[in-house]
């Protein structure tokens, strides 16, 4: 339960960061959707590059190679969220350019 609240708080903070992006510098949102049991968990990173972030690439390579006895975290230097690879049923990776929210928007 506490992990979910931290993940939700991270997502909110990331959305706030996207809203503060200056118009001249493109930012990209990378989303990794993890299917765990009957639920899904979203891990979101905002970067300056369109390339897949290193933690996401490591996860995808590890999952495809069958190394399911590992524990994965998107931020190894500050592990707020970690999950066992063998508990993941599926994953989906998405990326796109961050869009600035109009002032007064609640989304």
Layout: helices, strands, pairs:
Elements: H1 2-19, E1 28-36, E2 39-47, H2 54-65, E3 71-72, E4 83-84, E5 88-97
Antiparallel strand pairs: 1-2, 1-5, 3-4
Strand order of the largest sheet: 2-1-5
Please estimate the helix content.
25-40%
Number of domains: 1
Poorly predicted regions are: none
Give the oligomeric state. Answer: single chain
Structural class, from helix and strand content? alpha+beta
- The tally of strands reads 5
Share in β-strands: 25-35%
Please describe the biggest sheet, giving its number of strands, its sense, and whether it closes into a barrel: 3 strands, antiparallel
* Tally of contiguous helical segments: 2
Helix and strand run = HEEHEEE
**Principal-axes shape call:** elongated
* Rg estimate, integer Å: 15 Å
**How much is the average pLDDT?**
76
Terminal Cα span: 24 Å
Would you give an account of this structure?
The protein has 107 residues and is α+β, with helices and mostly antiparallel strands. Helix content is 28%, strand content 30%. It has one domain (2-97). It has helices at residues 2-19, 54-65, and strands spanning 28-36, 39-47, 71-72, 83-84, 88-97. The strands form 2 sheets. It has a 3-stranded antiparallel beta sheet with strand order 2-1-5.
